[in-house]
Write a structure and sequence with these properties.
heterodimer; A: mainly alpha; 2 helices; B: mainly alpha; 8 helices; 2 strands; 72% helix; globular
Chain lengths: 156, 263
């Protein structure tokens, strides 16, 4: 139990162990721990940042979607307006066309009737002369009576 | 029986000594040296193997365990010591783990290692009653004083390094009563304080472990009843063994941080 040379031996062992620990054991382990702590801290910060970015992106996407919807509604509205406009235009054109066709048809009818009347008029004169001839059983000098006949025709 | 018990206890408390010189001082306690160096190597090689493979990525389970110890020591040092010193943390780690391992030898049944040693001695033709082996190095005053003197020298070294030689002398002589007339009183008080530190450090560890070992040996002499008693005492040492290692480490840090403080 008394103190002896063992003390010196243990002291040397102690010094050697501490130096070994200081040179080869402590630095790598503590470096690994601190590096990992830094990595974890960085990772946490990055994830927080990413979450914030995600929120921002979601907000942006929502805003864009809203805008797109508004635009789409606008486009549909414009298209509807244009549609009714086109229909109206077409209807107006068709109406005009119809009126034109009717007018030209009436004009044609009119001219046809005039022509027919003209023809009739001329033929009536001939028929009247022929009828009068038959009635009078004699020839009528067409030239002599043309004035009367013309008056008759004009009355038709 | 009484004589048997007495010699049994005495046998267990005797170191394996080898004389290397003429005086009584020139003696080596081979068991203390052997076990302490063996346990120191166990500590260093275990930690070194982890240090070599230490990854900053996902650590293995073993690396985690070692890192827990290192982190515990590191935070203890950082709480107490605020200066910059590359030595204190590794020193504290060495003291903590080494003392813990040496104290833990207390858990090995008191007769196991002497029994094996006596068997080996018997085979080698030595009288078994002359084979002594004490397997707990911290129950040897040489061991605890070696540790505390190592710390003491560091305290002196850093006191002089930080405060200068005159600062160190001033601290010894002008403290706690800052007057020239009190210099002798101060010197006595401060010297006692200074010397009490390594002394108490060594004797506390030695006393706790020696008493614990002695009680283990006493328990071993009471026959079959020793089984539950031994279990209880070993369970109690779950507290004492780490606590003594922790106290030794903590006081080392405190003394060294005091040495770094300029008054």
């Amino acid at each position: 139990m008394n103190v002896n040379l063992t003390l010196v031996g243990e002291l040397i062992a102690f010094v050697v162990f501490v130096i070994f620990c200081m040179k080869f054991v402590w630095p790598p382990i503590i470096a690994a721990i601190e590096d990992r702590q830094k990595t974890i801290a960085d990772g946490l910060a990055a994830s927080e940042r990413a979450a914030k970015d995600l929120e921002l992106a979601q907000d942006k996407a929502k805003a864009q979607l809203k805008e797109a919807k508004a635009q789409a509604a606008e486009i549909v509205d414009a298209a509807k307006k244009r549609e009714t406009q086109m229909i109206e235009e077409a209807a107006g054109k068709a109406q005009a066309e119809r009126e034109k066709i009717i007018a030209s048809g009436q004009a044609e009818i009119e001219s046809e009737r005039n022509r027919a009347r003209e023809e009739l008029r001329s033929q009536v004169a001939v028929l009247a002369v022929a009828g009068a001839e038959k009635i009078l059983e004699r020839s009528i000098d067409a030239a002599a009576h043309s004035e009367i006949l013309d008056k008759l025709v004009a009355e038709l | 029986m009484a004589a048997d018990t007495g010699s049994y206890i005495k046998h267990h408390l005797t170191n394996w000594q080898v004389s290397v010189g003429d005086s009584a001082f020139m003696t080596l306690n081979v068991d203390t040296l052997g076990w302490s160096i063996f346990l120191g190597l166990v500590f260093l090689l275990t930690f070194r193997s982890v240090a070599k493979k230490a990854t900053t990525g996902v650590p293995g389970k073993f690396q985690c365990a070692i890192e827990m110890i290192v982190g515990f020591v590191d935070s203890s040092v950082k709480e107490t010591f605020h200066g910059k010193n590359k030595l204190i943390a590794p020193l504290a780690l060495t003291i903590f783990v080494w003392v813990l391992l040496m104290n833990a030898m207390d858990w090995v049944p008191v007769d196991l290692i002497p029994f094996i040693a006596q068997a080996i001695g018997g085979v080698m033709g030595v009288d078994p009653s002359h084979v002594y082996i004490k397997s707990v190095p911290t129950t040897d005053l040489n061991m605890t004083f070696a540790l505390s003197l190592g710390v003491f020298f560091l305290v002196i070294y850093y006191s002089i390094k930080i405060k200068g030689f005159s600062g160190f002398i001033k601290e010894l002589t002008l403290h706690p009563f800052n007057h020239w007339a009190f210099i002798p009183v101060n010197f006595i008080l401060e010297t006692v304080t200074l010397l009490a530190r390594p002394l108490s450090l060594a004797l506390r560890l030695f006393g706790n472990l020696y008493a614990g070992e002695l009680i283990f040996i006493l328990i071993a002499t009471i026959g079959l009843a020793q089984l539950p008693v031994h279990f209880m005492w070993a369970a109690f040492h779950l507290l004492i063994i780490p606590l003594q290692a922790f106290i030794f480490m903590m006081l080392t840090i405190v003394y060294l941080s005091l040495a770094h403080e300029d008054h």
